[in-house]
Automatic annotation (TrEMBL):
It is an enzyme of class 2 (transferase). This is Ribosomal RNA large subunit methyltransferase F. InterPro entries: METTL16/RlmF, rRNA_lsu_MeTfrase_F, SAM-dependent_MTases_sf. Keywords: Cytoplasm, Methyltransferase, rRNA processing, S-adenosyl-L-methionine, Transferase.
Length: 333
């Protein structure tokens, strides 16, 4: 008796890959080349006490000192983005700004690819920052660079209080950044989005580790690789700080991405392009499989580079080219 033909498996959505040369930032990134420390100190004098001379005879800061990293970030935000007032509670994530800016510039290029090469700018463009954190970095840079409006979401009330203080103390941000708490730690998009709202982008820097111990081990390994692990010196556990929800979650990055892929399909009508950083290269293929199962139409894998660090930005959409064109005509023009 003849067997019925097997149903073909649904193929993974085609992925478009791009990558910069090693060590290169995005061409529009303001942080090209070496920093002008005298200029930074002029706009933020407190930075002066943290400037050191590195082994190459160049001015730098001690990136093993959390206080130095925070003051350095404050100076960068003031000098490059006009953010006069910025602070975060002790122990919260103090992210490297050049890499965060690169993420946003790549997302701008992604939108331009659906808009005849022109980057959509201004308040009609709405972005959703999943895990905005106490630092509020993505909305600050995204609004400064492109005039986009943001909703920043987080599960931690203290983080949102800090982000809200930053927004309230910088007049140019009034009305541009809304902060919203995700009340259910088991969800990412569900229960967060209102039924009638639309976002052109979502972005996320997911928790990479499965536990606090794994995060601490990763930091120790990094310092050893950089030749800075001095047994006589007490180094911080995490030089860039970070709370539990910022750095680790059950199942780590892979489990978070799996949940994000699944939930994104449930709010597919409300977001044009979803995106996330992916720290571990092996998780990219896993994410592609989960997105295929969820029904994503297109996936973009964008390589990013800062110094010796290589990372990946994965973006996906549930809308085909015709639907994206209609979205553009309705919202951006």
């Amino acid at each position: 008796m003849p067997q019925p033909p097997k149903r073909p498996r649904k193929p993974a959505p085609a992925a478009v890959k791009t990558a910069p040369n090693k060590g290169e930032l995005h061409p529009r990134n303001r942080h090209q080349g070496r920093y002008d420390f005298p200029a930074l100190i002029r706009v933020s004098p407190e930075l002066g006490q943290f400037v050191i001379t590195n082994p190459y005879g160049k001015p730098s800061i001690d990136f093993a000192n959390p206080a130095a990293v925070k003051v350095f970030n404050r100076a960068l935000l003031r000098q490059y983005y006009g953010i006069e007032h910025w602070d975060i509670p002790e122990g919260y994530l103090c992210p490297p700004i050049p890499g965060r800016a690169d993420y946003l510039h790549n997302l701008a290029d992604l939108l331009a690819s659906d808009n005849d090469g022109q980057i959509p700018r201004g308040e009609n463009l709405r972005a959703l920052d999943i895990g905005v954190g106490a630092n509020c970095i993505y909305p600050l840079i995204g609004h400064c660079e492109y005039g986009w409006h943001f909703v920043g979401a987080d599960i931690a009330a203290e983080a949102l209080t800090s982000a809200r203080t930053i927004v309230q103390n910088n007049a140019q941000l009034a009305g541009a950044i809304e902060l919203r708490q995700q009340g259910n730690a088991e969800h990412i998009f569900l229960g967060l989005l209102q039924g009638d709202e639309r976002f052109d982008l979502s972005l996320c820097n997911p928790p990479f580790h499965t536990s606090a111990a794994e995060a601490s081990s990763g930091s120790t390994r990094k310092w050893r690789n950089l030749g800075k692990l001095d047994p006589k010196r007490k180094l911080p556990v995490l030089n860039f700080g970070g709370q539990a929800a910022e750095l680790w979650c059950p199942g780590g990055e892979a489990e978070f991405l799996k949940r994000m892929a699944s939930e994104s399909a449930q709010v597919a009508d409300q977001v044009l392009w979803f995106s996330s950083l992916v720290s571990k290269s092996g998780n990219v293929q896993l994410l592609q499989g989960w997105l295929a199962k969820a029904g994503a139409v297109e996936v973009r894998i964008l390589g990013m580079s800062q110094g010796q660090k290589q990372s990946r930005l994965v973006a996906w959409t549930f809308k085909d080219a015709q639907q994206r064109s209609a979205w553009r005509d309705n919202r951006w023009r």
